[in-house]
Amino acid sequence: MFQPLGFEQRSINTSLGRMVYYTASGSLWQDNITAKDDRETLVFLHGFGGGSSAYEWSKVYPAFAAEYRVIAPDLLGWGRSEHPERNYNIDDYLTAIREFIEQTCTGSVTAIASSLTAAFTIRVAAAHPDLFKSLILTTPAGLSDFGENYSRSFFAQLVSVPIVDRLIYSTGVATSGGIRSFLEQRQFAKANRVYQEIVDAYLQSAQQPNAEYAALSFVRGDLCFDLSLYIQQLTTPTAIIWGQKSEFTGPAIGRRLAEMNPQAIRFFQELEDVGLTPQLEVPAVTIGLIRQFLPLLN
User: Fold this and answer.
1) Is 263 helix (H, G, I), strand (E, B) or coil?
2) What's the burial of 95, exposed, middle or buried (CB within 10 Å: 0-12/13-18/19+)?
3) φ and ψ of 136, to 5 deg
4) What are phi and psi of 293, to 5 degrees?
5) d(CA 240, CA 134)
6) Is the pTM value of this prediction over 0.85?
7) CA neighbours within 13 Å on the CB side: how many for 179?
8) What count of other Cβ atoms lies within 10 Å of the Cβ of residue 112?
9) Which of 2, 42, 145, 231 has the fewest CB atoms within 10 Å distance of its CB?
10) Is residue 1 within 8 Å of 208, Cβ to Cβ?
């Protein structure tokens, strides 16, 4: 799978399985100043979907490696991390995120997270505020917000049928055509921003042994929840970036969530002609916004 120049793969063992992560290494980044151990840590957490992995942030996090300690994990069940044969639930990822940060970081960190994982990160930060200095989140949504129930949707019900679920995954998700179609039609606002490396990276992750377990748990709605029930508990300074053309949850949902806790959620930036993952669709803009928010959230 794709690994940026100047980064190496490491791993830790959580209570739920081994998690792989990527961090800057070698002479490319380190000199007498940046080699210091007291640099602030940025943790980049990817969202969910067929073939998701830390690749999702790989066009963004190298831009910070000279100034910060950067770590970007493949979450449990995704990428190169362990893929336990199980149906995943919300507590699995709340635990995995917390344990990953506790094991890899000292002191509070800035978490930069995407979509449903960003919503999980809000819950982890609310329960363990000492772990976090700030949050910068792209499209944080529980996908069942304000009383909506994603698990009742037709597609969620369809992939709840045994055998049918594996068939859909193998023929419609874990294929080059299936991934490209989803990226162009659902994930990105503009299809011409999807290039072959993105498709290849998603495909490699989607075709890992047992990759279907986490993906189907997500598509069935097992991991969805109503973020509006938790967001007022957040005390960590937070900035939100939201693609105007996010297919699954539009910016109106984001603004409604942000307005529930203006004390913690200090910035809400909407991006025109951008979809669910601005970090892949417009990485340079995303880097610029993260750089703008970091000092303002301190």
Assistant:
1) coil
2) middle
3) -125, 115
4) -75, -35
5) 11
6) yes
7) 23
8) 29
9) 2
10) no
* Cα separation values, 212 from 83, 165, 168, Å: 9, 9, 10
For residue 123, how far is the Cα from the chain centroid?
14
Mean pLDDT by 10 residues, the chain (298 residues): 90 97 87 63 95 97 95 97 95 98 96 98 98 98 86 57 64 84 93 96 94 90 94 98 92 96 98 97 98 96
Pull the structure tokens for residue 182: 């989803």
How do 238-243 and 265-271 pair as beta strands?
A: parallel
Residue 240 backbone phi and psi in degrees, to 5: -125, 135
150 by DSSP, 3-state: which? Answer: helix
- Residues 6 or more apart whose CB falls under 8 angstroms from that of 272 comprise 244
Identify the residue whose tokens are 């995943």.
88
146 Ramachandran zone, left/alpha/beta (phi>0; psi -120 to 50): left
Rounded distance between C-alpha atoms, residue 247 and residue 260, angstroms? 22
What does the block give as tokens for 120?
Answer: 């999980």
Buried b (16+ CB within 10 A) or exposed e, 158-176: ebeeeeebeebbeeebbbe
